[in-house]
Amino acid sequence: MSLRKVINLEELLYDVLPYISNMEFIKNLIKEAKDINELEKKVKEMLEKEDNITKKTDLKILLEKIEIYKQQG
């Protein structure tokens, strides 16, 4: 894992937290990921299975931020 990937995940955490409801859930999800690609895959899988509307919204916000980060390189 490169230093750049670690920095991206840490920055992502700080960027996404103000917009979500369940901070601990998203924080743990980000911290458990090895890199941004693994995180994106896990979030997409969870979105398909999640029934809780609040968690689903938080996951969508996170996925949107992930896509922005990936476009920035």
The residue fraction in helices comes out at over 70%
Spatial extent as radius of gyration: 11 Å
Number of strands: 0
Question: Could you give the distance between the termini?
Answer: 15 Å
Beta percentage is under 5%
Stretches where pLDDT falls below 50 for ≥5 residues?
none
Report the mean per-residue pLDDT as an integer: 88
Structural class by secondary-structure content: mainly alpha
What summary fits the major beta sheet?
none
Number of helices: 4
Form type: globular
Secondary-structure element series: HHHH
Describe this structure in words.
This protein is an all-alpha fold. Helix content is 79%, strand content 0%. It has four helices and no strands. The chain has helices at 3-16, 23-32, 36-49, 53-72. Helix 3 runs antiparallel to helix 4 (53-72). The radius of gyration is 11 Å and the shape is globular. The protein starts with a helix and ends with a helix. 14% of the residues are buried.
Secondary structure topology:
Blueprint lengths: L2 H14 L6 H10 L3 H14 L3 H20 L1
